TrEMBL record:
Gene3D superfamilies: Periplasmic binding protein-like II (3.40.190.10), Winged helix-like DNA-binding domain superfamily/Winged helix DNA-binding domain (1.10.10.10). It comes from Streptomyces virginiae (Streptomyces cinnamonensis). Coiled coil: none annotated. This is LysR substrate-binding domain-containing protein. Belongs to the LysR transcriptional regulatory family.
Amino acid sequence: MLDVRRLRLLRELARRGTIAAVAEALTFSPSAVSQQLSVLEREAGLPLLERTGRGVRLTPAGQNLVRHAEAVLERLEQADADLAEARGGLAGALRIGAFPTATRAIVPAALIALARRHPGLEPMVSETDPAAVAHALRAGDLDVALVHEYDFVPAEPEPGLATEPLYGEAMYLAAPAAEAPDPSETRPREAPDPSGGSDQGAVLRTHARAPWITATPGTLCHAMTVRACQAAGFTPRVRHQVDEFATVLALVAAGQGVAVVPQLGVTGPDDPAVRLTRLLMERRTNLAFRSGAGAHPAVAAFGAALRAAVPPDLAGSRAGT
């Protein structure tokens, strides 16, 4: 009989690429991971891994077994959801991953509603970049997470994970107000037009020679800005790399460059030193969880609380609609 825990290790190796990465993610030693995979090979009765220099890769039999492992793990999540439903009354920890703007603007209201309806549930929020969510969910470090995608950075399908749409946001080009006007109308941040906007390429090209402020490399926000500029015909000259949008806007106000920011990143009092121009692109936010866990009462309750907490000005631009 194949051991589920060893199947999980094989699945993680297929996703992470190295035994060292699997060991770090699952808090094992590399030798322990290798040992358990060797046992799994003996249980399977044929080679699942082959050496490639200093690394390993899955054999065709190993790749096929990973596909079966995904199905097995999904069924186990469904079984866990059924048991939780049968027990009645939600209790215990719910580990939530969320990115900063959602953590500030939406998650607190959702947690208030969740506490009123399910006082025995203990939500535990960790700020997590969406690029790191898939591994954290598969490793069991998170139970549910908010993830986002941009028009220029679409989400890739993640084996073992499922998502549900939550909302969409407008995107803005933030520039110092002292600069010459963009070739478009600037729209107020309080009432963005979800169906219209500026000539995006023209707006971005106006700032082709300006210094840019982006998120740190490796994040979806960084890739979004770079790809949007490249689609407009230039590569941005990056001066500052900052992840917090409030700080990004402060740098823009100080004349340090221009940036692309999402709607939730520009909430708060208007800053006369910053001019915001509505772009055609959007950021879409989804709820992510392990395949089979969508019916878990705690995951479903958190999802319902999140949807109720979405601000009205975002509700008309929900992801997937």
